[in-house]
Amino acid sequence: MAALRTRRLTLTPCRPSDCADFIALERDPEVMRFLNGGHPVDRERADPNASFLMPRGTEPYVWTARRTTNDAFVGWFCLWPESETLAELGYRLRRTDWGRGLASEGASALVNWGFESAGYGKIVGTTMAVNRASRRVMERLGMTHARTDHVDWPDPIPGSEEGDVWYELTRSEWERRSTAT
């Protein structure tokens, strides 16, 4: 995994020293709203089968995002391999950094790295259908809506009745988009 730099962000492979920042994200109810209904995560009691990533700073494929200008923690991004040719994009940012284009900026750097360096043929992402902000990030990356899944969760959270949306971007679509800009 390489360090990645954008205009405003530096993404580096996560380290155990990032764990306190990761935990602070998980304790913010708004950050967790579309993951578990907004409940702060207690790592000592967390369900080991939780459907969302709780990085500890030792995970491969997770990058810590910090502002290039002052090294302030912004959040994390991941590009988790599902196979040799398929990876799933994920991200979580501090609420104070929402609405500034940083999610799109960091995710774009990771998608570019995934196609250019990691050799993926397709990158996917998922979120709740009601998470409009995350959907916009994926659309800005050129990802297209592939499907909507409806799952009967044992403990549904508000909005889950509208399903989970899956977005995808293939290497050929990314190449076409890259040459057009």
Structure description:
This protein is of the alpha+beta class and 181 residues long. It has a single domain, classed as Gcn5-related N-acetyltransferase (GNAT) (Aminopeptidase), CATH 3.40.630. Helix content is 28%, strand content 28%. The chain is built from five helices and eight strands. The chain has an eight-stranded mixed β-sheet with strand order 1-2-3-4-5-6-8-7, with helices on both faces. The longest helix has 15 residues. The chain is globular and about 45 Å long. The two termini are 26 Å apart. The mean pLDDT is 88.
Total separate domains? 1
| Overall average residue pLDDT | 88
Computed CA radius of gyration, to the nearest angstrom = 16 Å
* Helix and strand pattern: EEHHEEEHEHEEH
Span from first to last CA? 26 Å
Number of strands: 8
CATH superfamily: Gcn5-related N-acetyltransferase (GNAT)
Give the class-level CATH name: Alpha Beta
Looking across the biggest beta sheet, what order are the strands in?
1-2-3-4-5-6-8-7
Give the amount of beta strand, in percent: 25-35%
CATH fold-level assignment: Aminopeptidase
As a percent range, the share of helical residues equals: 25-40%
Structural category is: alpha+beta
SS summary, helix count: 5
Largest sheet: 8 strands, mixed
- CATH-derived architecture: 3-Layer(aba) Sandwich
Question: What general form does the structure show?
Answer: globular
Low-confidence segments, given as residue ranges, are none
Summed up:
This protein is an alpha+beta fold. It has five helices and eight strands, in the order ββααβββαβαββα. It has a single domain, classed as Gcn5-related N-acetyltransferase (GNAT) (Aminopeptidase).
